[in-house]
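Lecture 7 notes: from sequence to structure.
We start with the chain below.
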Amino acid sequence: MMTKIYQNILILTGAGISAESGLATFRSANGLWNNHPVEDVATIEGFQRNPALVHEFYNGLKEEIQKAKPNAAHLAITELQKNYPGQINVVTQNVDTLHEKAGNRNVYHIHGQINQAVCLNCGHILETFGDVDMQTACPHCQVAGMMKPNIVFFGENLLCMNEVDRLLRSCDLFVSIGTSGVVYPAAGFVQTAKYYGADTIEFTLETTANNYLFDRHVYGPAGQTFPPYVEELKKKLPN
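Predicted structure tokens for the same chain:
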């Protein structure tokens, strides 16, 4: 698996990579979303019912996420992008901005970003780590009270999926870091990549639900296991 020089590497990241930076994984077994009922803060119905609560929830998360620092796994992606000749893209299920803080490029946030709000009136995306609430006016159409956190709520379509589909079909190495293999459609990405001929490797703490689709499994915290793999890839390059 390690003898070729890859032309297109696609890295999928999930909550596990951010957990090493001290960010809690939002979805827990008891149906809570960072200690709130999912239907209150992560559904369109919840937002329509009590938009003030939803804004307050995500404004609070912004503070927590702003303090977090990228870890060795995030930084290793930057190292790979700087020093490996192939095209390297990152698809993340995480709404934090740790990839950007680490200097990662070509990042696709399929679940949205904590530092964005989208205007339900005109579609304009506002980028800010400041508070957004029902008094916030859209800087584009000037209408107030129509900004929604640019987070993909349950039942909404994922973002960037046309680009992601293209990347899955063209990659020759698919790397999964810190994902459970449970949440679809992201859990099916490896199947698509493998179907189109990609080598597949996962970095995970424990056996995942789609474990059988990976050619290679590396167990342990990604901050410890992924940087050596980047060095492994670099060693295969011709001098």
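Points to note: Residues 15 and 25 are 6 Å apart (CA to CA). The longest strand covers residues 112-119.
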